[in-house]
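Lecture notes, structural biology module. Today: joint structure prediction for complexes of two components.
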Amino acid sequence: MSTTVPAADTRYARSAEAVERLAAQLAATATRPWTLMEVCGGQTHAIVRWGLDQLLPEGIRLIHGPGCPVCVTPAATLDAALALARQPEVILCSYGDMLRVPGSRSGDDLLGVRAAGGDVRLLTSPLQAIALAQAHPDRLVVFLAVGFETTAPATALLVRQATALGLVNLALLPAHVRVVPAMEAILSGPDNQVQGFLAAGHVGAVMGTAELQGLVQRQGVPVVISGFEPVELMAGILRCVQLLEAGESAVANAYGRVVQEGGNPEAQQLIEAVFEVVDQPWRGLGVIPAGGLALRPAYAALEARHHRPQLLEQPQPAAAQEPQQSQEPHNLPVCISGQILRGVRRPCDCPAFGSSCTPEHPLGAPMVSSEGACAAYHRYRPN
Amino acid sequence: MEPVEPPDLSGGGDPLWRVAEVDFGGVRQAVSLACLPQARVGDQVLVHVGLALSIVAEDEP
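The predicted structure, tokenised, for the full assembly:
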């Protein structure tokens, strides 16, 4: 899934001088060790790509969060997508990264189904599914809808447009997730090390600061909404360490260029109108209370399982059986992706990293996705 | 950013169908303005999976 921000002045956003100035300020600010988590996979990639973690003063540690929708989509949802894609009358579409993630059987992915003759298509926007359904009235177009609150408004808009047009051959396999409950689950984990968060700027652009304020009040940790460029990330880290040093738990917005305090009200209304909050299994993390979004009953006719009940027979209960902790039955036992997603271990701690697990032959989802932590390390720091 | 006519799908003034053409470093694509009714020609916007979500302020120095 790609987000595009016009980078009018990447000269400043990527200025080594500005980054070094912020790093010096950080070194002067930090008096003791702190552990921060950047939640979003896009931020993880930027941090590893630009080597920002190597510029931090000793004791300031970044751990990588589960903000990779491709990585946390339950195996049961992928199994449903695979089963649908094998039907000759179905056109299964999703974002590029989803096509390479294995279901519960190792090596079974949507690209493989396409190679065997299935009609699997890559979309860059959910709204493209409308034209696809209109062009193929004799086929069932199924959109595998994943993503955080950044992506949920576009899926909600697809639902509204499809409903307005009365399209009867368009269905959704929804697996949308909510980021704040996952942050709360990480803080509540027995092995939690996180003392402060860098929150994803693009989720902030939609949701604003309200949900984060609630998290801060309940958990007493600072949260800084950050951007994705090196200067923006360093400014976010500095702000978070300043709050930690001052003993303040608050929400700070270090991405004011893009994020308004109230977020985007129209996008929030779309999400609210189309989805309801549900407990949701996250691959590698288990069921997260209030961690997902399901279509409201008014839109049940758009559910893929409404169209193919025999094939999908109640994916919800099956999904709820997703392992609670880090067992990944679909992966070889050596894969530690569950622990990677919880930030407990790093990609280079994995014995398979770079040897039996590579982006070409991934064992776990974090090596597949362009937002996965393992893929980031493999691309920018292979040794 | 240049707003273009809504595609030939449904009611013209309905925000559900409002689209604009957005220039991504030379590549022009249709983007939904359903969530950003206040966007005007020339604004820089944050776009995620085909939907404009936020007007981006001018860069800080």
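Point to remember: The longest strand of chain B covers residues 19-24.
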